[in-house]
Amino acid sequence: MSHDQASYLELLARGAAAEAYDRPLLLARASGAGPDELAALDQAKQLALRVRAELEGRRRREAELSALFETAHDLAGLRDLDAVLRAIVQRARSLLGTEVAYLSLNDPSAGDTYMRVTEGSVSARFQQLRLGMGEGLGGLVAQTARPYVTDSYFDDARFEHTRAIDTAVSDEGLVAILGVPLMLGSQVIGVLFAADRRARVFEREQVALLASFAAHAAVAIDTANLLAETRSALAELERANEIIRDHSGVIERASEVHDRLTEVVLRGGGVHDVAAALSEVLDGTVEFRDDDLEAAGADGRAIQHGDDWVAAVSAGGELLGALVLRGHRDLDPVDRRTLERAAMVTSLLLLARRSAHEAEQRVRGELLDDLLDAADRDPRLLRERAARLHADLDVPHVVLAARIDTASADGSGRDAGGRGSDAAATGERETVDRQRLWSAASHLAATRSGLAAARDGGTVLLLPLGPSDSASDLARQTARQLGCTLRELVTVGASSPVAAPADDPGPIAGAYEQARRCLDALRLLGRSGQGAAAQDLGFLGLLLADPGDIDGFVERTMGEVVEYDRKRGTDLVRTLDAYFASGMSPARTKDDLHVHVNTVAQRLERIGRLLGPDWQSPGRALEIQLALRLHAMSVSVAR
């Protein structure tokens, strides 16, 4: 063997590139070798290239077998299906030497196939692509269960081109694409692809290799689905066991709560005893609430409100209160039914207590009737009667007139005269409504140490005024509480405060008339279901209120301006009067006052800061002008 022939062995040994095998022959020619020597070298070159190709094939097959072995190993320890599918796509891309590899799965419900895993893709549109069966190369593979390969996608007319698919493929820049089906038995569940962004011919061995990876991917998907079904079955079995255990415990708790509630009723317990017994059985905090009942249901069912459960305590359509179970976001049906039964027991206890208190409520009504009708009653006797009812008539009180707004509450269209429905049925309903209102108002008055009586087709209440309360606050609270209790629109008008009714019952009757006028005004203004005092109605309230409250109206409307003039010796009140008299024209105002227009502007700016930015709105301006006239009259009288 010559030195030049031996150089081919060296090239094989170091794995040189194919073009390096031309060098020994070129050197021999350059050195003047004869024809025989050149022929021998060319034969050695061809033999070396065949050996090199065989070695390359073996190395490639070893790499492919290694990749397939690693994939099988991944499947044996399958934990995350997505991770296994990503590994298959990555290895397919690496071994086939393509720029992109991807895997799609069929969606039987939608009748198409969608991208599941991509490797090397840069286009978001491509990564989110869905292909209909038979559309594009992938749709054709999914439909026919056969591999398809194209060395130039856009020039291939064997499959259906659609705008959406072609746009996505164009965005990704793909040209050559190989797709093989993912098979489970005879069923195609998806497609595995390898693709390049340049023209390329995929060899038979490469198609077979990608098909092997596709088989592994199908096994991975099937195994993952079986594992998911097994886990789901085990979870269902565990849940069933838990339900059986929980149901057994719930039955025991239901039996216990029945015994506890029976004991509470037999020993004459009250609603708070029911709540305490229920708290122990349900392992939570149960409260009885008779205020803020918007969350309570009307049909006796326990309903969830945030993290709490609320069961209405009602009788005859009247909401008496609610049992509230705190901090139980999840409540099983048996415990929910237990809460509902406890609410029913509570309603029976409340009805029994109400019957016992009805006589007391009638006494309260008789005392209020005497305060309204007999102003010359002995104060000492009034105090004694009030003390027996736990009422204190030596503190300021407010008189409130309340009425159910039936025409708005039930949507029937009937009015006070019974028009729109049978007059007898309407009259019966109104009688029932008045009784329900009196009952609810009497209960409210008893809880507030006040008095209540049925009068003039509605109800009148006399409630004490707390240190931080106002007549307006009391009216709104009463309208809201009575409305929630009766589930009707209840309108409430309030009087100005009455000081110590026991000392002088005389003003009570006038306060009641004022409250009634305020109630009528609210209904005329379309404010049914609300509560307000005369002072909330602006100058309309002045007409409804005691004439002695003129100074109060002036103070509420423009008192800050009057006080500012008094403290600083300014002339804002006169400026305000001239401004309105001139038609709200600063130019004419400055002529009337004989001052510069800038002075008028500065004064008006100061008035705006004192009265608020809306002082020139039509409603406010009317009230301010009325207050100016009343203020001028009071000043002239004082002089």
Structure in words:
This protein has 639 residues and is an alpha+beta fold. It has 21 helices and 15 strands. It has a six-stranded antiparallel β-sheet. It has a five-stranded mixed β-sheet with strand order 12-13-11-14-15. The relative contact order is 0.04. Mean pLDDT is 80; it is low at 408-421.
Secondary-structure blueprint of this entry?
Blueprint: H1 3-13, H2 23-30, H3 35-76, H4 81-96, E1 100-107, E2 112-119, H5 124-127, E3 130-132, H6 136-144, E4 148-150, H7 163-172, E5 176-184, E6 187-196, H8 204-266, H9 271-282, E7 285-289, E8 302-305, E9 308-315, E10 318-326, H10 333-373, H11 379-388, E11 397-404, H12 406-409, H13 423-447, E12 451-455, E13 458-464, H14 471-486, E14 490-494, H15 506-524, E15 531-533, H16 538-544, H17 550-568, H18 572-581, H19 586-593, H20 597-611, H21 618-638
Helix pairs in contact: 1-3, 2-3, 3-4, 3-8, 4-8, 8-9, 8-10, 9-10, 10-13, 13-14, 17-21, 18-19, 19-20
Q: Biggest sheet: strands, sense, closure?
A: 6 strands, antiparallel
Q: Which regions contain 5 or more consecutive residues with pLDDT less than 50?
A: 408-421
Counted beta strands: 15
Helix and strand composition category:
alpha+beta
Tally the helices.
21
The end-to-end distance, rounded to whole angstroms, is 144 Å
Rg, please?
47 Å
Task: Please give the share of residues in helix.
Answer: 55-70%
Silhouette:
elongated
Average pLDDT level: 80
Strand order of the largest sheet: 3-2-1-6-5-4
Indicate the proportion of strand residues.
5-15%
Quaternary: single chain
